[in-house]
Amino acid sequence: MSLFRKYYKNKNHATHRQQSNGEKTALGWLKDDEQKANILKTASYYLDIQNTILASLHDPVTQACKILKFDNGTLVIAVPSAAYAAKIRQLTPRISQLLMNQGLNVNEVRIRIQANLYQPEPQARAHTENRTILNQSALDAFDKLHKTLPEGEFSDTIARILKRRKT
User: Cross-referenced InterPro entries, in alphabetical order (predicted)?
Assistant: First the structure.
Protein backbone atom coordinates (compact mmCIF):
# COMPACT_ATOMS: atom_id res chain seq x y z
CA MET A 1 0.00 0.00 0.00
CA SER A 2 1.39 3.42 -0.88
CA LEU A 3 2.30 5.90 1.83
CA PHE A 4 -0.26 8.38 0.56
CA ARG A 5 -3.12 5.87 0.63
CA LYS A 6 -2.07 4.53 4.00
CA TYR A 7 -2.66 7.89 5.68
CA TYR A 8 -5.30 9.60 3.58
CA LYS A 9 -7.44 6.88 2.01
CA ASN A 10 -10.48 7.13 4.31
CA LYS A 11 -11.77 10.61 5.08
CA ASN A 12 -14.80 9.22 7.00
CA HIS A 13 -12.76 7.46 9.65
CA ALA A 14 -13.72 7.24 13.31
CA THR A 15 -12.39 9.97 15.57
CA HIS A 16 -9.16 9.27 17.35
CA ARG A 17 -10.98 9.58 20.67
CA GLN A 18 -13.06 6.53 19.72
CA GLN A 19 -9.99 4.62 18.52
CA SER A 20 -7.87 5.17 21.65
CA ASN A 21 -10.35 3.34 23.96
CA GLY A 22 -9.05 5.19 27.01
CA GLU A 23 -5.40 4.15 26.72
CA LYS A 24 -3.32 5.42 29.65
CA THR A 25 -0.13 5.86 27.62
CA ALA A 26 1.46 8.88 25.96
CA LEU A 27 0.17 7.67 22.61
CA GLY A 28 -3.30 7.28 24.10
CA TRP A 29 -3.12 10.85 25.40
CA LEU A 30 -2.07 12.09 21.96
CA LYS A 31 -4.94 10.23 20.33
CA ASP A 32 -7.56 11.69 22.72
CA ASP A 33 -7.56 15.12 21.12
CA GLU A 34 -8.16 15.52 17.37
CA GLN A 35 -5.50 18.22 17.00
CA LYS A 36 -2.89 16.14 18.85
CA ALA A 37 -3.93 13.10 16.83
CA ASN A 38 -3.31 15.01 13.61
CA ILE A 39 0.16 15.97 14.82
CA LEU A 40 0.87 12.34 15.65
CA LYS A 41 -0.44 11.26 12.26
CA THR A 42 1.77 13.80 10.46
CA ALA A 43 4.83 12.81 12.49
CA SER A 44 4.32 9.12 11.76
CA TYR A 45 3.78 9.99 8.08
CA TYR A 46 7.11 11.83 7.96
CA LEU A 47 8.82 8.96 9.77
CA ASP A 48 7.44 6.52 7.23
CA ILE A 49 8.80 8.66 4.40
CA GLN A 50 12.17 8.81 6.14
CA ASN A 51 12.22 5.05 6.80
CA THR A 52 11.29 4.36 3.17
CA ILE A 53 14.24 6.46 2.02
CA LEU A 54 16.60 4.79 4.51
CA ALA A 55 15.50 1.28 3.62
CA SER A 56 15.74 1.81 -0.11
CA LEU A 57 18.87 3.89 -0.58
CA HIS A 58 21.24 2.11 1.85
CA ASP A 59 23.52 5.16 1.83
CA PRO A 60 25.30 6.14 5.09
CA VAL A 61 24.59 9.80 4.35
CA THR A 62 20.85 9.22 4.54
CA GLN A 63 21.24 8.07 8.17
CA ALA A 64 21.92 11.66 9.22
CA CYS A 65 18.98 13.18 7.33
CA LYS A 66 15.58 14.02 8.78
CA ILE A 67 12.33 14.77 6.95
CA LEU A 68 11.10 18.17 8.06
CA LYS A 69 8.08 18.67 5.86
CA PHE A 70 6.16 17.33 2.89
CA ASP A 71 3.62 19.78 1.55
CA ASN A 72 2.18 20.40 -1.93
CA GLY A 73 4.76 18.19 -3.61
CA THR A 74 7.73 19.78 -1.85
CA LEU A 75 9.85 17.56 0.37
CA VAL A 76 12.10 19.38 2.87
CA ILE A 77 15.06 17.40 4.21
CA ALA A 78 17.30 18.58 7.07
CA VAL A 79 21.01 17.68 6.97
CA PRO A 80 23.82 18.42 9.46
CA SER A 81 26.36 20.02 7.08
CA ALA A 82 27.06 21.25 3.57
CA ALA A 83 28.84 17.98 2.74
CA TYR A 84 25.67 16.03 3.53
CA ALA A 85 23.64 18.54 1.52
CA ALA A 86 25.85 18.00 -1.53
CA LYS A 87 25.45 14.24 -1.34
CA ILE A 88 21.68 14.46 -0.85
CA ARG A 89 21.47 16.76 -3.88
CA GLN A 90 23.09 13.96 -5.87
CA LEU A 91 20.51 11.50 -4.52
CA THR A 92 17.52 13.81 -5.16
CA PRO A 93 16.39 12.12 -8.41
CA ARG A 94 16.48 8.70 -6.74
CA ILE A 95 14.57 10.01 -3.70
CA SER A 96 11.92 11.63 -5.91
CA GLN A 97 11.48 8.49 -8.00
CA LEU A 98 11.31 6.30 -4.89
CA LEU A 99 8.57 8.41 -3.33
CA MET A 100 6.67 8.66 -6.60
CA ASN A 101 6.68 4.85 -6.74
CA GLN A 102 5.11 4.94 -3.26
CA GLY A 103 2.27 7.15 -4.49
CA LEU A 104 3.58 10.56 -3.45
CA ASN A 105 3.77 13.37 -5.99
CA VAL A 106 7.22 14.91 -5.39
CA ASN A 107 7.82 18.03 -7.47
CA GLU A 108 10.74 19.46 -5.53
CA VAL A 109 13.24 18.42 -2.87
CA ARG A 110 14.63 21.20 -0.69
CA ILE A 111 17.54 20.80 1.67
CA ARG A 112 18.10 22.73 4.90
CA ILE A 113 21.33 22.62 6.85
CA GLN A 114 20.92 22.30 10.63
CA ALA A 115 24.31 22.10 12.32
CA ASN A 116 23.34 20.16 15.46
CA LEU A 117 21.12 17.64 13.70
CA TYR A 118 23.43 14.61 13.77
CA GLN A 119 25.62 13.66 16.72
CA PRO A 120 27.92 10.71 16.01
CA GLU A 121 28.32 8.06 18.68
CA PRO A 122 30.97 9.09 21.21
CA GLN A 123 34.36 7.42 20.81
CA ALA A 124 35.11 7.23 24.55
CA ARG A 125 33.99 3.60 24.69
CA ALA A 126 36.65 2.55 22.19
CA HIS A 127 39.35 4.07 24.41
CA THR A 128 38.28 2.04 27.44
CA GLU A 129 38.16 -1.14 25.33
CA ASN A 130 41.82 -0.60 24.36
CA ARG A 131 42.82 -0.56 28.03
CA THR A 132 41.64 -4.11 28.57
CA ILE A 133 43.58 -5.50 25.61
CA LEU A 134 46.94 -5.46 27.42
CA ASN A 135 47.12 -8.15 30.09
CA GLN A 136 49.90 -8.55 32.65
CA SER A 137 52.16 -10.62 30.40
CA ALA A 138 51.94 -7.94 27.69
CA LEU A 139 52.83 -5.26 30.25
CA ASP A 140 55.80 -7.34 31.39
CA ALA A 141 56.97 -7.66 27.75
CA PHE A 142 56.69 -3.89 27.27
CA ASP A 143 58.63 -3.33 30.50
CA LYS A 144 61.39 -5.72 29.34
CA LEU A 145 61.50 -3.96 25.95
CA HIS A 146 61.67 -0.54 27.59
CA LYS A 147 64.70 -1.61 29.66
CA THR A 148 66.58 -2.79 26.56
CA LEU A 149 65.89 0.27 24.38
CA PRO A 150 68.26 3.22 24.10
CA GLU A 151 66.96 6.65 25.13
CA GLY A 152 64.80 8.22 22.44
CA GLU A 153 61.27 8.74 21.11
CA PHE A 154 60.41 5.06 20.94
CA SER A 155 61.60 4.46 24.48
CA ASP A 156 59.58 7.45 25.71
CA THR A 157 56.47 6.13 23.96
CA ILE A 158 56.83 2.72 25.60
CA ALA A 159 57.32 4.44 28.98
CA ARG A 160 54.07 6.42 28.48
CA ILE A 161 52.18 3.24 27.58
CA LEU A 162 53.46 1.51 30.71
CA LYS A 163 52.69 4.51 32.90
CA ARG A 164 49.13 4.76 31.54
CA ARG A 165 48.43 1.06 32.03
CA LYS A 166 49.84 0.84 35.54
CA THR A 167 47.73 3.72 36.90
Answer: DciA-like
Helical packing angle, 136-148 and 153-166, nearest 10°: 150
Please, which contacts does 83-90 make with residues 24 or more away whose CB atoms are closer than 8 Å? 84/113, 84/118, 85/111, 85/113, 87/59, 87/61, 88/61, 88/62
With both helix axes pointing from N to C terminus, report the angle between 34-57 and 82-101 in degrees, rounded to the nearest 10: 100
pLDDT reading at 146 higher than 50: yes
- pLDDT value at position 153? 86
User: β-pairing, 74-79 with 108-113?
Assistant: parallel
Residues in the chain: 167
Q: Which residue has the higher pLDDT, 36 or 87?
A: 87
Helices (H), 33-123: 34-57, 82-101
Q: Is the dihedral of CA 156, 161, 165, 167 positive or negative?
A: positive
